[in-house]
């Protein structure tokens, strides 16, 4: 009798350990939130859109990007949120109207997609690397940066580092105001070893960079006066992830912006790049390039 109970306890522990080990393996391999090369090829073939998928490397760090459109046209550069990858903007990259006007580039930010996946970087490091990459894509045409969510502060930081480089910033539901950031204490806990290894896929670098974000935004704030580009803010009035108060902060702090326009989307939440595709697409088409 005692022997049978011991065997049952052993089996339960063995099953529990096996399930835990499987979960650990899945954490390292699943939820990377990126489109495979085969699926990328299939997507663009179905859309009948030519594309480039390449990596730019600098000091052993990669920036993976997708490019569509003709090389001699003005450029839209799409920067995704957290977590995410280039394919957050895949519908834009194949849009026939946008392709008539622009060359388009969507990147995997450092730590995401195929850009050194899992190695999260602070705002300034990311921005320096993306700026270095974009120098290699210079075609002497205007460059418009589009950043959604975490992409908003990234394109803002990029522009403070290169004030004369970018014609227009399109900040979509961007988190720019440090006072609006309320870092959750649990993020610090799950950054520690070994707990961090229980966090699946792209959620791990996302947690790392979001924990740094408030201080990054504090450091960024005194540099906002360096921005001389045109600014277009697009924000949903009921965004529960990035408060609408960021709009007022941008309007107040971007004191040297060439111009400032706002598209408020009534009752919209944080996911407007997908739920309000036509609104955003049309706003990009309406940007004057002269």
What does this 3D model show about the protein?
- This protein folds into 2 domains: 30 residues; 254 residues, Rossmann fold.
- An 8-stranded mixed sheet has the order 1-2-4-3-5-6-7-8.
- It has 290 residues and is of the alpha/beta class.
- α7 packs across α8.
- About 6% of the residues have low confidence.
- It is built from 11 helices and 8 strands.
Q: Total strand count, please? A: 8
Radius of gyration: 21 Å
Helix-strand sequence: HHEEEHHEHEHEHHEHEHH
Widest sheet: strand ordering: 1-2-4-3-5-6-7-8
Roughly what percent helix?
40-55%
Q: How far apart are the termini?
A: 87 Å
Shape: globular
CATH class descriptor of the largest domain:
Alpha Beta
How much of the sequence lies in strands comes to 15-25%
Number of domains: 2
Structural class: alpha/beta
Low-confidence stretches: 14-29
CATH fold node name of the largest domain: Rossmann fold
Largest sheet: 8 strands, mixed
Number of helices: 11
CATH architecture of the largest domain: 3-Layer(aba) Sandwich
> What's the mean pLDDT score?
87
């Amino acid at each position: 009798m005692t022997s049978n109970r011991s065997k049952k306890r052993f089996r339960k522990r063995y099953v529990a350990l096996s399930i835990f080990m499987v979960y650990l393996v899945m954490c390292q391999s699943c939820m990377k939130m990126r489109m495979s090369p085969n699926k990328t090829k299939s997507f663009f073939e179905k859309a009948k859109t030519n594309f480039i998928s390449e990596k730019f490397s600098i000091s052993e760090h990669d920036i993976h990007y997708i490019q569509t459109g003709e090389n001699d046209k003005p450029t839209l550069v799409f920067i995704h949120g957290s977590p995410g990858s280039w394919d957050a903007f895949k519908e834009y990259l194949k849009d026939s109207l946008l392709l008539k006007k622009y060359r388009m580039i969507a990147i995997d930010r450092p730590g995401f997609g195929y850009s050194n996946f899992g190695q999260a970087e602070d705002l300034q490091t990311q921005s320096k690397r993306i700026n270095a990459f974009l120098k290699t894509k210079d075609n002497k045409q205007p460059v418009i940066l589009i950043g959604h969510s975490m992409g908003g502060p990234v394109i803002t930081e990029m522009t403070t580092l290169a004030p004369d480089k970018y014609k227009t910033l399109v900040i979509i539901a961007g988190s720019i105001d440090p006072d609006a950031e309320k870092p959750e204490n649990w993020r610090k806990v799950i950054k520690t070893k070994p707990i961090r290894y229980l966090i699946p896929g792209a959620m791990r670098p996302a947690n790392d960079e979001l924990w740094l974000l408030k201080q990054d935004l504090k450091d960024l704030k005194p540099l906002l006066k360096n921005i001389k580009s045109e600014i277009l803010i697009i924000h949903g009035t009921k965004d529960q992830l990035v408060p609408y108060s960021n709009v007022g902060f941008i309007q107040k702090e971007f004191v040297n912006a060439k111009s400032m326009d706002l598209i408020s989307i009534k009752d919209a939440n944080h996911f407007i790049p997908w739920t309000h595709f036509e609104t955003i697409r049309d706003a990009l088409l309406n940007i004057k390039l002269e």
